[in-house]
Amino acid sequence: MNFDFSDEQKQLRDSARRFLEKQSSVAVVRRVLEGDEGYDRELWQGLAEMGFTGAAIPEEFGGAGLGYLELCVIAEELGRAVAPVPFSSTVYLAAEFLLAAGNDAQKKNYLPKIAAGEVIGTFAYAETAGEVTAERIKATVSGGKLSGTKIPVADGSIADFAVVAAQSGSGLGLYLVDLTGPGVTRTVVDTIDPSRKHARIVFDGAPVEQLGSGDAEAVIAAVYDRAAVLTAFEQVGGSDRALEMARDYALERIAFGRQIGSFQAIKHILADMYVSATLARSNCYWGAYALSTGSAELPEAAASCRVSATKAFQHCSTNNIQVHGGMGFTWQFDCHLYYKRSNLLALNLGSLSVWENRLIARMRARNSARDAA
Amino acid sequence: MNFDDTPEEAAFRQEARAWIAANAPKHLKEELELSGFGGLYLKSEDPMQAGKAWQKKKAEAGWACLHWPKEYGGRGATPIERVIWGQEEGVYAKLSGLFTIGHGMCGPTVMAWGSEEAKRERLPTLASGEEIWCQLFSEPAAGSDLAGLRTRAEKATDGSGDWIINGQKIWTSGAQHSQWGLLLTRTDPNVPKHKGLTMFFLDMRSPGVEVRPIRQMNDQRSFNEVFFENVRIPDNQRLGPVGGGWNVSLTTLMNERLSIGSGMPTGFPDLLDFAMATGDVDNPAVRAKLADWAVKASGLKFTAFRALSALSKGETPGPENSIGKLVAGAMMQDIARYAMDLQGEAGVLTNAADAEARGKFQAMALRSPATRIEGGSDEILRNIIAERVLNLPADVRVDKDVAFNAIPTSGRK
């Protein structure tokens, strides 16, 4: 058994960490948080130059062809750095939809540009509150034109193209839309984590190109499972960083004449943060294994790491503030960057309860198959 | 990243599997699968005899205490081979519960500190299950604060060099079945508490040893009180230097940590099966609870896999492995109560004939408080994680530099 990343993958992690500590410093994150630009261009270009945006894109489409384990390693570091870039929208979603459902021409058109950091993509899915289901999607394609409203769309205000889920005469379908073209109106919406901008996009007769002809819901489910693993790695990276911040503060802060980290009340909070972050990391390794090997376990592994990592990041970011006391509630301290990101990531890709239901449905199917055998 | 055996590991697994298939007591399989949560209950055979028979059979074929050297009754196997054996032995490992403390803790301590003679005399019969060992550490006034123990060992005045033991131990699992015990004593009360301790092993059949089983809240009797009244131990049964007992005890406790990979039960697979059988799983509120426990159970499983990977690379498992019992213990308690809640008023029933799921969740509810205390309470485990993994400052220890006999013994003024 070798249930760990390889030495090369650990080296990649170290170089990603060094790069992000410099290029995605807290100052950079705060500039996006407080600004209107939508993302940090220099960081985004740097990620492309490092080969990160194309890490899992095959070489024939201009990628580095490294693989999904490498992408997991990169995702963890992006989460740790609360990187203010459209990486998840472009790499975990848009690129994956193209790989899963795109024809050769579509892949050749978009994937090399994603790998080069020349385009930003996203997935436009939700329209109303509640779990996104095919029935709740009202956006419609007719005669090659899309009409309807999508909100919230991650990176919707900065993306060059979107994969859009919309109805047509033959049911739910997936479409590629040029967001810089006609019939597209987008406005930035306020969200819980302004370091990652979201938009409302109104389509009014926007020209589309069909993406795949199969069962769109099955494609979405498959891409979401893959994205769930990668997002979970971001959540684990964020959990670890929040734990470190709390630990460091507990060592530095003196109260009642002692380091507050010497009080069991604080120690036990930190120990519980370590436990949840560790359980999430271990689930994520399972997800990484399943993602990289194309294992039939992927749906269950993806839901497990998604649920576990969502809980861990929320737990760690929440208690990081608690350990910091009042200072943790200030704009000046960095705790809120992690708290906000943890709440954003808990909802992007579908909320915790949606994934909890999915997990148990999948475990149930496995047990039923076992009992039938 | 993979779960695959190396070719050597695969060959070992194959050999273990074949031997188990040919030799395991298959007639007990079903009963063993239903047995759990605090004891081995067999109707068709005496559990002690069944356990000893399986251990002897394993020992004769070289499958006992795999990681011990051959000359002491083991196989000289690697740590990862030991884990593979455990995976293959599966449900039959429940038959070896009587030997867990001897094999996992007492044996390795004798191995590290005993004389060659002691090792050759004591270890093979421990490996083969002919003799059972217990660990005599905790006392009524020394649990989490183990170094506060008071059982005295004093040099005999007859010039024999023997030691005379007086005092009391408690929470000693399996003492009533044991022939030998690993005993931590105080030899010098005039120095700070960690410095005045000395370790021995003793024959439990010695005059002056009295074992009294404790009736536990779940009406079982697996723990005991052990009383010592002028019990004589020869000096050649001392392990480590006089006054060095604390260091010796750390060997014991570190070996406890090495017993990873077997996995603590969490109750989750039982709960999922139960909720599926009753149809409760159709309720989204139930699914949310199940999902929370599901990811803890899988998180523990894969944390153990990561520890095994480190082990197979030759790394030593560290204090981070404290999370297994910390998570599993509380989880078992929560799951038991939730399953009983799903049973409604019938949840009060405990008899296998009347109760849902043969009463396993009720048994779990009544056993789980002990899991959260034995072998390091939840609170001690959190301290270990905080201090040794996260490097937070050690607790303020007001008794650290005080002679043991000057430490207060009561909170009453």
TrEMBL record, chain A:
Q: Quote the InterPro entries the UniProt record gives.
A: Acyl-CoA_Oxase/DH_mid-dom_sf, AcylCo_DH-like_C, AcylCo_DH/oxidase_C, AcylCoA_DH/ox_N, AcylCoA_DH/ox_N_sf, AcylCoA_DH/oxidase_NM_dom_sf
Domain Acyl-CoA dehydrogenase/oxidase N-terminal: start-end pairs: 6-118
Name any one Pfam family assigned in the record: Acyl-CoA_dh_N
SUPFAM superfamilies, per this entry? Answer: Acyl-CoA dehydrogenase C-terminal domain-like, Acyl-CoA dehydrogenase NM domain-like
Query: What range(s) does the Acyl-CoA dehydrogenase/oxidase C-terminal domain occupy?
Result: 227-354
Which keywords has UniProt assigned to this entry?
FAD, Flavoprotein, Oxidoreductase
Cofactor(s) it depends on: FAD
Supply the EC number(s): 1.-.-.-
Q: Which GO terms describe its molecular function?
A: oxidoreductase activity
The UniProt family comment states: Belongs to the acyl-CoA dehydrogenase family.
Query: What's the protein called, per UniProt?
Result: Acyl-CoA dehydrogenase family protein
From TrEMBL, chain B:
Q: Which InterPro entries would you find in this protein's record?
A: Acyl-CoA_Oxase/DH_mid-dom (IPR006091), Acyl-CoA_Oxase/DH_mid-dom_sf (IPR046373), AcylCo_DH-like_C (IPR036250), AcylCo_DH/oxidase_C (IPR009075), AcylCoA_DH/ox_N (IPR013786), AcylCoA_DH/ox_N_sf (IPR037069), AcylCoA_DH/oxidase_NM_dom_sf (IPR009100), Mycobact_Acyl-CoA_DH (IPR052161)
Reported cofactor(s): FAD
What are the protein's UniProt keywords? FAD, Flavoprotein, Oxidoreductase
The record places domain Acyl-CoA dehydrogenase/oxidase C-terminal at 243-390
Keyword Flavoprotein present in the record's keywords: the answer is yes
Highest taxon above the source species: Bacteria
Domain named Acyl-CoA dehydrogenase/oxidase N-terminal: residues: 6-130
Note the SUPFAM superfamilies from the entry.
Acyl-CoA dehydrogenase C-terminal domain-like (SSF47203), Acyl-CoA dehydrogenase NM domain-like (SSF56645)
Query: A single Pfam family, by name?
Result: Acyl-CoA_dh_1
Q: Which residues form the Acyl-CoA oxidase/dehydrogenase middle domain?
A: 134-231
Similarity annotation: Belongs to the acyl-CoA dehydrogenase family.
The UniProt entry, under PANTHER family, shows: ACYL-COA DEHYDROGENASE (PTHR43292), ACYL-COA DEHYDROGENASE FADE34 (PTHR43292:SF4)
**This chain belongs to which protein, by name?**
Acyl-CoA dehydrogenase family protein
